[in-house]
Specification:
This protein has 17 helices and 11 strands. With 427 residues, it is an alpha/beta fold. It has 2 domains: 281 residues, Crotonobetainyl-coa:carnitine coa-transferase, domain 1 (Rossmann fold), CATH 3.40.50; 80 residues, no CATH class. Strands 3-2-1-4-5-6 form a 6-stranded parallel β-sheet, with helices on both faces. Helix 1 links the parallel strand 1 and strand 2. Helix 3 crosses helix 17 and helix 7 packs across helix 8. It starts with 7 loop residues before the first strand and ends in an 11-residue tail after the last helix.
């Protein structure tokens, strides 16, 4: 039994943010019905670099975000399609979407209308920049949110153009915030009996991720600058990524106590650095008490050269003490086979039709009595449409009309794109 058994979710979304939040709910036991547009959501077709699998398979982004859901297809702009969506919502606990506000309202799926009809419904939406303000309706993708949220401004080398993070952290952190908001609203509904609106954005999630750094600027007026492989608010040795003699990278986030500092300097071939009074205690090495960070900053290029004196494996052995915060930088292939990830259940396997068993990332929340369950992925577009609609009381004649609306939309969309498509519905 999952923690959310009995909770019904209607997901009307695309991409990462809302789908990943719905994934969290599904793997903790909620029943999630995902409504896709008749042509399929866009991340079905995002294969990505290095993907030589058959084009008939959905892309990794879709597979990552949509486990444990029943997938249906309706034309939300059609009369029968809207009727089907509203029927599903009428029996749901949660409606979630990342479509723009104006689009939802045009479809009769705006908050005011649904809250009036279904006062216990939790209405959860997420967008790029929030519901209010001059940019409420601006289009957004992950990198745009990173840029607006300031993360890009402090990422990369000071003498180069700012860099985006190497992962979709704005979208995924937005998904986390959305799922937290939904669970908070569920608790409130238990107490009040009333549903409410839950809303957040990629922009908001970026600000939350940088809560410390932005508060630092709010308190001091200091605006952090890009510092390459180092945190922009740390001026001294440690606290950064370093290249080793064999061209690998390691992260050291530790100023080291006195004895280990002396051992480190000797091991790196610079024993005299341990005796230098500018850096002879941890406070001096990280610049505490010196807002300018000047003398601590002088240590950084020395540390860079010292770390280059040994291989990554040698540093791993030297910093084997678990109380020292050190880590060789792992690439993705290593992570998927990391015993630490495997033993904690952070990496799991699912069966992907047409491929077989693949590794993916499991639900990260571990509940002792009601653990999450890794769910299978439904890859076929609309494969649960008839099954779900029958359960919700639609007869076959009405289902045929719903399918016909979806098929007409699909054919028109492909025709406008200069493509051809056979029928996609089944019975």
């Amino acid at each position: 039994m999952g923690a959310l058994d009995g909770i019904k979710v209607v997901e009307f979304s695309i991409g990462i943010q809302a789908p990943q939040a719905a994934l969290h709910l599904a793997e903790h036991g909620a029943e999630v019905i995902k409504i896709e547009p008749p042509v399929g959501e866009t991340n079905r077709f995002h294969g990505g670099l290095g993907n030589h699998l058959p084009e008939s398979l959905p892309g990794p982004q879709f597979v990552a975000m949509n486990r444990g859901k029943r997938m249906i297809v309706v034309n939300a702009k059609g009369e029968r399609g809207r009727e089907a969506i509203l029927k599903l919502i009428s029996e749901a606990d949660i409606f979630m979407s990342n479509w723009r506000e104006a689009a939802l309202e045009r479809l009769g799926l705006g908050y005011d209308e649904l809250h009036k009809s279904f006062p216990k419904l939790i209405y959860a939406t997420i967008n790029g920049f929030g519901l209010k303000g001059p940019d409420a309706d601006r289009a957004m993708m992950d990198g745009v949110a990173q840029a607006r949220g300031g993360l890009t401004s402090v990422t990369g080398s000071p003498d180069q153009v700012p860099m985006m993070a190497g992962a979709a952290i704005a979208d995924s952190s937005g998904a986390v915030q959305l799922s937290v908001g939904i669970l908070t609203a569920l608790v409130a509904r238990e107490r009040t009996g009333i549903g409410q609106r839950v809303s957040t954005s990629s922009y908001a999630s970026q600000l939350w991720l940088q809560c410390w750094e932005l508060t630092h600027t709010g308190m001091t007026g200091y605006v952090p600058q890009r510092s390459g492989s180092f945190h922009p608010l740390a001026s001294g040795g440690g606290f950064g990524c370093y290249e080793t003699s064999d061209g690998q990278a390691v992260a050291l986030v530790d100023t080291l106590e006195a004895e280990k500092w002396r051992e480190f300097c000797a091991y790196a071939g610079r024993p005299e650095i341990a005796e230098d009074t500018r850096w002879d205690n941890p406070r001096k090495r990280i610049g505490l008490g010196d807002p300018s960070g000047y003398e601590a900053g002088l240590l950084r290029p020395i540390m860079i050269e010292m770390m280059k004196s040994r291989t990554a494996a040698e540093w791993e052995a030297f910093f084997a003490d678990p109380d020292i915060m050190f880590q060789r930088v792992f690439h993705y292939g290593e992570i998927l086979s990391d015993p630490q990830a495997l033993e904690n259940g952070y990496v799991t396997q699912i069966d992907l039709p047409g491929v077989g068993s693949i590794k993916t990332i499991a639900n990260p929340i571990d509940l002792s009595e009601t653990p999450a369950e890794t769910k299978p992925i439904a890859t076929e577009l609309g494969m649960h449409t008839e099954e779900v609609l029958l359960e919700y009381g639609f007869d076959w004649d009405t289902i045929s009309e719903i399918n016909a609306e979806a098929e007409q939309f699909r054919q028109e969309a492909y025709k406008s794109a200069g493509l051809t498509l056979g029928t996609g519905s089944k019975k």
